[in-house]
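Section 5.1 Outputs to date
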Amino acid sequence: MEALIKRHLNRMQTVKLDFVRSMMDEIDWNDRLLMIKGQKGVGKTTLMTQRILQEFGPTNTTDVLYASLDNIYFSTHSLLDFIERFHAQGGKYLFLDEVHKYKGWSLEIKNAYDEFEDMHIVLSGSSLINLIEGEADLSRRCITYTMQGLSFREYLRMFHQKDFRKRTLQEILTDGNSLCAEVNAQLRPLPLFAEYLRYGYYPFLKEGQNNYYLRIENIVNTIIEVELPQLKKLDVGNIRKVKSLLGILSSGVPYTVDTVKLSSMAEMSRNTLLQYLQNLSEARLIQLLYSDVTNVKRLQKPDKIYLENTNMLHALATTKVNEGTEREVFFINQLSAAHVVEYSKTSADFTIDHLYTIEVGGRSKDGKQIAGVANSFIASADEEYVLGNKIPLWLFGFLY
């Protein structure tokens, strides 16, 4: 255990508070058990260690301790024994990273939760973790938060030191020009938005652009080669087929789904195809869109398929990325964090929260697709200000 304490202290020396994600204030840290899920690389570990530094300082290991469950310590010590020892020494706050890498973690966390009522435990792990499917059902005990990569707003703050408050969708649709004026007074949004679409989603951009896309590829490979077999029982013999499927989607998104054609191209049955699409969606590698979310049935064919974010689109694409695809991927990614996004039943692109109809495009979009449709808007990639019902696309990057 002493080795874990040393690692905690060493890590605290490297933590910085110059940029803290807005998610920090959205989490109720008073809950006894909470989980932060998300794709590898979005900043879960940083958020946890920043919370420790803010609340407990850099040297306190009596009350609080951070540990990653992929540490070699846990190959010879049980998680429950570690928690018992820490509690016996007066510890009350545990931050446990990479929990999905420890076999049987859910049962031991459940036992610790039930036994030590004064203990607060923060977990982080893969997007694929399902609190119901583990050895112990933690769904009634654990509050779950899902972490995304940087929004455009957060990117501007982290990399360009421009701090703007987040806005609601209602504010953007009804009073967008006040934000446009505020932003344009400090910077030119369109060039920076173009940068963000290529390089701004993952915080590890701080470490430079040279290997940025390679790191994204490594994240994708880890999810497919390690996390899917471990957490979704993916047959390792099908890893090549899943990569092939993702490659097909990367070159063709937004992919209008023809299950017969797609299953043939990916060399798998229709049911296997639909199951793997669900797995890739849960892993936050792709986004599945349906025209009626409330009535989606298990293994139902989606209406459209997109990659999860624009940086991944650029990293995986084997041909030049289509501008229209890039815009739509951004829009879905930013909206889906807190809103219901559906493939529109009209001639427009999307329906949001069963209320708003949004067509995504460039300056040439004239509104024909949404003519006569109530609560309809154009999300335009080429505008700096709101013009009638034409909203700058980058404004939707201020939702979180």
